[in-house]
Amino acid sequence: MTVFETDITDLSHDGRGVAHVNGKAVFVSGALAGERVRAHFSGKHRHYDEAVVDEVLRASADRAVPRCAHFGVCGGCALQHLKPEAQIAAKQRVLLENLERIGKVTPQRVLSALTDSPWGYRRKARLSVKFVEKKGRVLVGFRESNGRYVADIARCEVLLPSVGEHIAGIAALIETLDARRDIPQIEVAIGDDLAALVFRHLQPLSARDRVALTEFGKTQALAIFLQPGGIDSVAPLWPEDACLTFRLPNHGVELEFKPLDFVQVNAGMNRAMIDQVLGLLDPRPANRVLDLFCGLGNFTLPLARRAAHVTGVEGEAGLVRRAGENALRNGIANAQFFAADLAVDQRDAPWAKADYDLVLLDPPRSGAEAVLEYLPRKSVRRVVYVSCHPGSLARDAGTLVNRHSFTLSAAGAMDMFPHTAHVESIAVFDR
Predict the structure, then answer these.
(1) Beta strands 309-314; 335-339: pairing state
(2) 425 vs 95: CA distance, rounded Å
(3) Which ranges of 233-285 does DSSP label H, i.e. alpha helix?
(4) Which residue, 48, 53, 68, 223, could crosslink 157 as a Cys pair with Cβ 3.0–4.6 Å?
(5) pLDDT at 418
(6) CATH code for 124-190+195-242?
(7) CATH homologous superfamily for 88-117+266-430?
(8) How far is it, in rounded angstroms, from Cα 357 to Cα 355?
(9) Residue 348 per-residue DSSP state
(10) Which residue from 91, 122, 88, 113 is spatially nearest to 13, judged by alpha carbons?
(11) C-alpha dihedral (111, 393, 317, 353), degrees to nearest 10
(12) What is the largest CA-CA distance in the chain?
């Protein structure tokens, strides 16, 4: 094992320190910009090397003591050793650098970064489960940083406490089940009033196991769902009428969702994000709005409270169906939803031919490249883009500015995933 000392000059996009040793870039896990560290190499590559910190010789003023005892082993977090305010500042820099380097664009105004509580925020997660034969133990948690093993954790500091404080108890429960070898994962889904666990099981559960899971749910006030097959096989075990919802009180909207549906991971940030997006989009009572990649109607329904009409388009038919149901649930009649694969050309679809005043884009990591081949139409005066990947946003920003004659009026990061390297952001484009 080769040990070396080096100065850390930068922070990489995945949260590792960047150094140069003998002229070669080295990505150092556990190091921060401005530090001097002693480290050892953990991987050699043609153009770069990887290393792990053994000792911090000169610490950054932004270094923090990780709250989680499993930090550094569990792969769920990458930045607990960096103060939250420094984390979001780094994400803001990543966003602006990507816009300039990839999109060749610079925002006229940098938005103040959106933040919320950095602890106990996650309402959605997928936990891995592993029965370790040699130890006779069940591990429940995120994958380790190397991805090969399930981290042996007792609690999680970033999951909402209704689940995060019960990781050890969930593992102990599974150890008692006949199916302990046949449960590979648990999906966590937490609404405003109910937390749910979805147990994926590869073999039918015994009557004894079903009773044990039900009793655990009752004792811990957790809804229990079972998933014997694909997504459509998910069904509640207890209570039989389990229903997950979250409210957007500033907009008079409540959305119902299924445990495996996509919803924003961070409830507090989601509310702040919606408020900011609507403020930036600034819909007027006579406006027609197009909401692409609309999901359950997270933006669509609040927009419908302020605009004449909103059209939501989403690729997953189940989400489109529930978006329509959520509109009915909230008494909203001026929102219309369509199921369409937005990764392929939809320019001949009736909704794509219509005129809109405003467009909202909230695409997956791959971005909205296909959509921007034929949208937005000339009637659109403003586009607000909500991004979960700065690289695809930067590419699409270049398209909106250079091909569609928009100006990048503003952009800024938001900390949807504190303690991780995920960079989420909002950008505003004006014609």
Answers:
(1) parallel
(2) 8
(3) 267-281
(4) 68
(5) 98
(6) 2.40.50.1070
(7) Vaccinia Virus protein VP39 (3.40.50.150)
(8) 7
(9) T
(10) 91
(11) 90
(12) 68
The residue length of the chain stands at 431
Query: What residue type is 166 in one-letter code?
Result: H
β-bridge pairing 244-248 and 109-110: unpaired
Q: Assign 163 to helix, strand or coil.
A: helix
Helix ranges (DSSP H) in 45-124: 84-98
pLDDT given at position 63: 98
Q: Give the pLDDT of residue 154.
A: 95
What is the Cα–Cα distance from 382 to 406, expressed in whole angstroms?
Answer: 8
**Residue 333: alpha-carbon gap to chain centroid:** 30
CB-CB contact of 8 with 34 (8 Å) = yes
- Whether 88-117+266-430 and 3-63 are alike in CATH topology: the answer is no
Distance between CA 211 and CA 237 in Å, rounded?
10
Given a cut of 50, the residues of the chain with pLDDT beneath it are none
Enter the pTM of the model: 0.95
Distance of alpha carbon 292 from alpha carbon 312, whole angstroms: 6
Residue 42 CA to residue 242 CA, distance in Å, equals: 47
The pLDDT, as a whole number, for residue 125 is 97
| Contacts of 136 by beta carbon, 8 Å cutoff, 6+ apart | 175
Tokens of 75: 């792969």
Q: Under CATH, which architecture does the 3-63 domain have?
A: Beta Barrel (2.40)
Token couple for 78: 């990458």
Domain ranges of the chain: 3-63, 88-117+266-430, 124-190+195-242
How crowded is the C-beta side of 370, counted as CA atoms within 13 Å?
14
DSSP state of 156: -
Instruction: Count CB neighbours of 34 within 10 A.
Output: 17
Q: How far is residue 16 from each of residues 55, 313, 369, 376, 421, measured CA to CA in Å?
A: 15, 37, 29, 38, 9
Q: Which residues pair with 115 in a beta bridge?
A: none
Strands (E), 166-307: 185-190, 195-200, 222-227, 235-238, 244-248, 253-257, 288-292
